[in-house]
Amino acid sequence: MIHSGTCCGGLRDRRMMTVSAALGCICLVFLLLSCASVRWDERYSDIDQYVQKGDFQGAYAQFDISAESLYGSGEQVLRYLDSGMLSHYADDFEKSNESLSAAEEMIYQNFSKSITQAVGSAVINDTIIDYAGDPYEDIYTNVFMALNYIHLNMLDDAFVEIRRFDNKLKSLSSQYQAEIAEMQKELPDDEYSATVNVQFHNSAFARYLSLLLYRTKGDFDSARVDRRLIDSAFQTQKSLYPFAVPSSVDEELSVSQNDARLNVIAFTGSSPIKIEEALRFLAPDGSFYFKIALPVMQERLSQIAKIEVIALSEENGDFFSFILEPIEDIAHIAEDTFQFKQGQIYFKSVARSLAKSAAGAAVSAVASSGSDSSLGGLLMLLTSLTTEVSERADLRISRYFPALASVGGMTVDPGRYTIEIVYQDKHGSVIEKQKYPHFKVTEGSLNLLEVECLR
Length: 455
Known about the structure:
By secondary structure, the chain is of the alpha+beta class. It is built from 13 helices and ten strands. It has a four-stranded mixed β-sheet. The protein has a four-stranded antiparallel β-sheet with strand order 5-4-8-9, with no helix packed on it.
């Protein structure tokens, strides 16, 4: 004979074991959640200290020391991008081209590889996919490789990079739109639809570099084409170019092969980082809520509002000054073009989270229909908490592209100059001064000084 007391005791024990196991899993979930909350950008603080001081040689040296521990196996694109930008600022242009070229090749490989890794990301989240770069990271590698070639006096190679930038920009939309449309078809309800409205299709800064190169080669017809395309970039993308065309741009077309022209490009501020934005929806049948976590770009505000160039002739003591004017807001373009990838991430996240939550609701319903209804509630709670943790936004992004490009120029007597760059805030207070002695300006050459202050 089986005594009822023994039966009830066994049932209570099983319930206690079930509750203990569920509570243990819940504690583990919260522990994972706290670990996942560490900000992505905190890992770079040692390098960032050098960058903020403008010590790019020190920044690159620190990067070299830290790279192995900073970047995982799926983050090698970031490693090459950060290496390429830091070595560019440190004037190691050959190393920069080597790193940026490797990043570009790996972006292409990882974009193709992401198709085969989609199964894992459909179950967990996008952080397990090898990072394939954001759209702006891919296209601006070519702009900075063009600058590297200019500094190396390899102007034909610089032209090639600008053309490659332009070709990438033209194909950017088609690269993502087809996949976004296909994903949207798989969703069960129009409620989850989203609009991808990207404006960027023409870069004023790339056209400006091309204009300078054509002018240097004496091809003024092609330079005038670039000048018209600069105007078009400003007129057709007003939200991305909310400032006037720099006043010095027109002067570039009046510079002859017998003139000595000083051109200055300044990169200021730092490119955006990503933060997580969580959204919650009610399932189509109303049986449960589900969460998605999206990466959202967040600008890093710069203190710099004005940049003055002061040039002193080392031969006769004459000096002159001019103000640099913005030509491209790279941070806004990063946000604009990220909409392509964000649309892709959104539709994938909705489908994944729906599947997770629906499976959890089904398991809970089966458990609740048995003799132990409390198990169903615990399983549903555990499923909800697990979804909260596992639905994490992929916050990976390179850190050392600039936020803004500003330009200016002046025709001067040939000779050597000490050039001082003065960065000021909106109140006119000086943030930083940089000196470049013995800068040589010659006739018929591209005398380009590039400066950076990523504060």
